[in-house]
Amino acid sequence: MPPEDGPPSFTFEWDERRDAVNSASSNTHSTNDFARGGYFGTFQTYLWMQHIKFSNDTLGIASTKAFLRIIGVRDDEYHHPVHHQTPLTSSCEKQLSLLGEHIDAYFAWCHPLYPIIHEATFRAQMMELVARPSEAIWKMLLYTVAALGASAISTESERNDITLFDVAKAQFSHEIMEMGNMSLVQALLLMSIYLRKQYNLNSSYNYLGFANRAAMGIGLYKEFHSSTSEPFFRETRRRLWWCLYNLNLEVSIAYSRPQDLPQREIEAHYPLNIHDLDLNPNTSSVTAEANNSTLYSSLKFGAAFYFAISSIYPRIISGPYPYAKELLLFDDSTISAWETSLPSFFRTNVPQPPNYVFCHAILHWRCLNFRILMYRPFVVWLFIMRYRNNPPKEPRDPASVNTAITRCMKAAEESISTISDFWNSHTQNALTGWYVLDFIFTAVLIPAMCLRYDPGSAQAPSWNLQVRKAVRVIESITLFNSSASHGLRIIKSLYKDPDSQETEHDTLVSNSAESHLQDSIPHPTTGVEDFFPSTPDI
Q: Structural domain boundaries of the chain?
């Protein structure tokens, strides 16, 4: 891929400190140009949720922000709200009883997604029944767990999690940089997850990077076989490593950045699919894995998914972009092989125990999301890039390109349908809303773009239904996540519901986007042709 034509290097810098972000958000012409910067590339999905008024970031042409610009959205029309802290008394640092509700919420909602810590061990450490790690690392771990739990069940008007996380963050010092142990990796990984949920993407990325180095420094990627390797401790290491690995691939795809962990050098086995009660520090051996869903099912099968797609991912974020035929072959072989390798109890439509319904759903949404992102450039080519040629030219392999486009649209439709069904039939809270918003926004951009460019298509009624369904879900998420309102404004600037009553502001925004679209189509967009081909060579 030819070098990107980006802004001066200083504009890659960023500052996500709360004071800097609040200052930049309250002043459109703030001198703090780094408030929400950083480099984001081809698959980036989250940048639209940041303060996109500030253009000091650089991103690949297939990122969601670039994608919106290509299809005619003036993203500078929208302002992203800032979270304000709810005061919490400092006594929360001293009284564990004040943290109980939040810690329970963490284990109920966050823990099944990423079982980074062992619940029984953690609760025993709270009661000082077993040894705790050093005081600073223990407080980092304890208050980040509490912050994640508080965040999971919070609303926009209740943000106690911010104060709890500040307590955890205050423990960070230069001495932390001089340690290496599993508790440190756990704390850093959880802090990274929390910051990502607050859309502090670069800060989250830094904490994750530190966790990576600390993990490799204690050899978590290695598999050790010896008589002194008790099953419980060996399995604890495996779980932590694959949580780290999964999060790295998840974040790399989300931010469209290179993978940060080794691939071929990994020796650690996938975690066993066993119930917690079947393994404790005194267990001498594990006879067999469970033949049903456990806390570690999503982790194990998610690790296999991410390891499978890690071979194609570097090619998708660089150039030249793979041919449609290559991606179809990868899909039909590698991704489909992963799907068929899933045990019968964890396949797509199999009912799950209540504790594992959400993590099971997310695993399959991730697969659909990757297909959308992988094939999305061909949808952009269909509606936009091929018209850069006059007259428009057809690809050399039209059958493969058309199949790629169809699969993208199908994955988007299935995502919207399954996510909507899940959201409407299960408990709704801030954590589920965050993931639902993430996946459904990426999906709904596909039918919204199709309607914008081909409103007379025979598929238009289906596209219209998909967009309406997604909009209803996103509207209901606004109670928990103000970014949902931001996403709605973007969607409505792309899509006009024939049965809705437009406000004057909606009309102005939509007209502005349409004007921008018409102005931009005849002119080459810098770097676009490098990624979305306008030639028949796709």
A: 90-197+200-296, 306-504+526-531
